[in-house]
Design goal:
Radius of gyration: 24 Å
Number of strands: 24
Structural class: alpha/beta
Shape: globular
Oligomer: single chain
Distance between the termini: 72 Å
Largest sheet: 7 strands, mixed
């Protein structure tokens, strides 16, 4: 007998499970299908375990400061396996939490793969047919495979492989200097691995502000991470001695290095194959599902959210899109799509990086009256007090003081960015943020001081 629902969600990642729960809150009978891990890539082999590793790495890398108190640190017996086990425990705890939330909200969890076999029908891997008025595709993405650099799970790793690896490599070459590459570079370097980081573009974090990226590269070099920009990497050979990588810069100068492992993190591709999408008439473009402003496909009963649509591949974007879709289906008023320029991107290495909107380069190229101002953390009392005065806050506005971009590198950048996101989103002029009382001493005072730069009245610099 066919089971009937109001909504079926394919995938229980940060987009899918949020959509399912929000749909249930709005009175829908919901089923969510997940063939692997409840919580998706982010929770199981992405955001959560990597942030746990970063937290552990920060403890290790910060231990050297104890020497200033006459404390000797001895890492004899250090066991990376225990560090890894802790990261898995964090992921498993949260996955169980998602299961609880789905059950609490009356969502039916079907732990199988599903295939769309009609505009309002899904067939599970075991052959059961489920029907619903609407279907949401939230099947996420997977690491991109580059010819010649294909992951084998033994010597050539994807990000998934790295997060599941229980042993710390003595040396590694990371190919790809985006957010994932930079975070792994920090993690592995902190635990004592020799790290080379190769990026084809002019700077790390290719979509980030160039000055911020330059500051991050300098910080990495201080940590003895070997950074190669405007360079490409290729595998020369793999043998019992390790993997030999040839790194060639833009001028054609090449060098070879042999490492124990290679980590390839050069982007992700959407999981849209074998879902039955094209068979029921859903249009795809370059592997992504084509959707309108409410993430509805050309088949009205089918929607796409998260990494399967051409929006930023970020967990918080997927979650927001999931909320939007079910609210739109439910006819809830005030539903609006997230405006991409106001979506923060965060990198959780040390120092942290966060930003949104236009960069300094693009702002000045597009608008001769754009204003750019910067405040260093060394001018913030809290930053100096806690020994984290590295970095700065940068804000870009139009001529009237409306924030069009902001970029932070330094302590707690990933938390501090949201005050500026809110100001930009709600059209609060930078002058008003500058007037707001910020507690002292806090790192957020650096944001306040930077906002004062619009009218040239920074106090502490």
């Amino acid at each position: 007998m066919e089971r009937t629902f109001d909504l079926i969600v394919l995938g229980a990642g940060p987009g899918g499970y949020v959509a399912a729960i929000r749909g249930a809150q709005l009175g829908m009978k919901v089923a969510v299908l997940e063939k692997k891990h409840v919580g998706g890539v982010c929770l199981n082999i992405g955001c959560i375990p990597s942030k746990n590793l970063i937290s552990s790495a920060a403890l290790v890398s910060g231990a050297g400061k104890l020497a200033g108190f006459g404390v000797r640190t001895d890492f004899t017996g250090f066991d990376y396996g225990s560090v890894h086990a802790q990261s898995r425990m964090a992921a498993e705890t949260l996955s169980k939490g998602i299961r609880y939330l789905l059950d609490k909200n009356g969502v039916t969890l079907v732990e199988e793969a599903g295939r769309i076999t009609g505009p309002r029908e899904v067939t599970t891997a075991s052959g059961e047919k489920l029907s619903a008025q609407n279907i949401i595709v939230a099947t996420g993405s997977r690491p991109r495979q580059i010819p010649g650099l294909e992951a084998d799970g033994e010597q050539i790793f994807s990000s998934d492989d790295m997060l599941l690896c229980k042993e710390l490599p003595k040396s590694i070459c990371i190919i790809g200097g985006g957010a994932i590459g930079c975070e792994f570079a920090y993690i592995l370097n902190s635990f004592g691995a020799s790290v080379s980081l190769v990026e084809m573009t002019e700077h790390l974090l290719p979509n980030e502000d160039a000055e911020v990226a330059k500051a991050l590269a300098m910080a990495f070099k201080k940590k003895k991470i070997s950074v190669h920009l405007k360079s490409k990497a290729e595998i020369v050979r793999k043998d019992d001695q390790g993997v030999t990588v040839k790194i060639t810069d833009v001028k054609g100068k090449a060098k070879e290095t042999t490492v124990e492992k290679v980590l390839v993190v050069t982007g992700r591709v959407p999981n849209t194959e074998d879902l039955g999408l094209e068979e029921v008439g859903v249009e795809l473009e370059k592997g992504f599902v084509k959707v309108n402003e409410y993430y509805q496909t050309n088949v009205p009963s089918i929607y796409g959210i998260g990494d399967v649509v051409p929006t930023p591949m970020l967990a918080h974007v997927a979650s927001k899109e999931g909320e939007l879709v079910v609210e739109y289906i439910a006819g809830k008023s005030g539903t609006e799509a997230p405006f991409v320029p106001y979506i923060p991107g965060c990198v959780y290495c040390e120092p942290q990086v966060a930003g949104f909107g236009v960069t300094e380069e693009s702002a000045l190229a597009q608008d001769s009256e754009a204003k750019v101002f910067k405040f260093p953390f060394k001018g913030a009392g809290k930053a100096v007090a806690i020994g984290k005065s590295e970095g700065f806050v940068k804000i870009i506005t139009d001529r009237d003081g409306q924030i069009v971009g902001a970029h932070i590198i330094g302590a707690d950048a990933t938390e501090l960015i949201h005050e500026l996101v809110l100001a930009a989103w709600k059209k609060i002029p930078v002058q008003e943020v500058a007037k707001m009382v910020h507690a002292h001493p806090t790192l957020s005072e650096a944001v306040m001081e930077c906002c004062r730069g619009y009218e040239d009245w920074m106090i502490h610099i």
